[in-house]
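User: Please predict the structure of the protein below. I'd like the answer in structure-token form so I can feed it into my own downstream comparison script.

Assistant: Understood. Taking the following sequence of 699 residues as input:
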Amino acid sequence: MVAPAVPELTEEILHESIDARTEVLAALRELGPPDLVQLIKQAPRNPGKQIGVYHHVTGVDASSSASLAAYINTLTYKENHQSSSKIVEGVYCCYNAFSRLDMRVHVTIPGSVDSYCIDERGEKRVASDELWLETYLCSVLRAYSYADDGSGDTIRKIMGVRRFNPVTNTETEHRFLQAAEQLFFRGWQLGSDSVVQVPNNVSNHLTTGLLKYFHTTGRFASGINLFEKLRTKNVEVSSLLAKVLFMGNEEVQAVRVLHESVKQSPMDYVMLDTQAEFLMKKALNPNQEELKQDRLRMALGCADRSTVAAPSEFGTWARLAEVYVAMEDWENALTTLNSCPMFTYQDKDAPIMPDPKEIYLPTLPETRLDEIDSEPESKYSEQVHPSLLSLRAAQYKGTFKHAYSILTEMTAKIGWDQLLKIRSNVFVMEEEYRSEKQPPAGQQGDSTKRSASTDVLRGSPGPPINGDEHTDDEKSTNGDSTAATLVAENGDRGSTADQAVEKPSHTVTPEEAKSGNEDSEATEEQLSRFNNKRLCERWLDSLFMVLYEDLRIYTIWRTEMAQYRAQQMQYKKSAEEWEILGSLADRLHHQAEAVEAYRACLSIRFSPKALTGILAEFEREKQTRETVASVIRLVTWQYRWYSEFSPELLYTIRTLIEDEGALKVRSIIQATSLPQNVLELTHHYAALCAAFRSSGTEG
């Protein structure tokens, strides 16, 4: 299989990339950045002049110094056949997150291979076999953690990263799982996803990587064997065993495992959460509607108990809120969401490098496809309206993204107006709080209208306009309302949106309640008058404002679309704007409108994000040919930007083969009217499924 091209970033000063990496070692928190490969080149005619170039890489076998030196040798082979300059030296840096060391292999060409490691203080140490085992496991986990999901978002974050598949057959799988078994109970040292407050034996980057591997490749039997062995040492592992059994459709066995294990460890929050997740999934099965309420009641019991077992974990409270949403108990859902402990998002460790002198991003002939190659040029000339760029919800990550998703799901089910009514029933609103605090009518009028502490958040508030009008979904297609366009001035656009979507009035946060009255007893007495209402957390109040902004822009867009269609006029936007609108509709759970926007984007230029959005719809609708055509283009785009491995795309191919059979999928790929060299890239993914003996590959 052809390897991705080699990007090159040229150093201003020789070895500055290595020095920059050494400087940040002490600041690394989790799995560490992608591996760094630095090469020294010189022209044969001028041996005195040396140039330093570097690139990053994931998925290379880091089990020994020999395997890393072999990678550098493959680069020298490529270079000697393609360029006038010659590689004379190379350094491969690979981070060991267990021991917090940077493992390095220095290759001199021709000549020796020297391996050592650098600690956080920048001092050299000897590299032992045990350290290489740790490094190998970290390397595989990083390959999955830094892999792109097909949308291109991860690829664009770090320039010039070659991404390889770390586990390509059953032999390398055996080595990976053996290393995972040996180091399993040290996995908590690697840290965890940003939604987990405290890493433990079953919630950390190692277990996340293992579950993602089994989910991607379908190697459930290997996962069951691994976790069965580990379960004998610690009953906590039962939750992971159950998750893999559920993945492999062994539901009866998974329920048995959880039943036995919860008896031994009744307050294990991960097991309780796994039970709640399974029961919710069964409850929402449309084929068994009559069992829905019973299963949701059981899920509620498990989710409620898990919040008692782990009150400081976001995941347990979020699950409880999701169960209430499924039960359509909106007040409890909102109250539970308000109780979620929120954490600052910690992004993955990324390389911090000085600005390169030159950047060389070559394209392999095998990845040439006209529609994809034209993407970068057209992308940067597009105009995007500021109102679309300022949507804060697009930047949410971690706990805030998850909480926002729950809030938007509630809005999609009951509408914005109803959500605001429930909010005012559950939380103390600013108007009622101030009217209790300042009874005189004259004073009350002024304080209700304006407050210095809240003006920044809510702008200049006006009274609610839409009382008992329709929900935003109905109004979005109402041709009678006159909406200003998204390219109009802010003032006009704002006034129209106020008519379409009611702006939420401000709630009282705990901080305001405390600071508003120095006499704490008086404050308690006042609050008791609000029929046991709660104080809304500041972050949730902010989420409502962000949701209002999303709905406002969405409603304007849909109203404009309806008006233009009624007048049989073309509604014009740039590709970037369509991409943002598609993402906005996705966030608000309007799948059909999201697909419409993504299609409009793709009609102008290629966009991996838009195509990934449409691919999800094709998979839901079981449209095999369209799914294959989308995957071929996404795989080619990934290769174009040096990535031969995307777990999500491999999973899509695997599930297609499972449903349709390998022969049919290969035939559909081959029947596509695209160049053969492009088709071979997707055939490579299908061949991986055959190597793993996935279901459907026998034929």
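That's the full token string. The longest strand covers residues 46-58.
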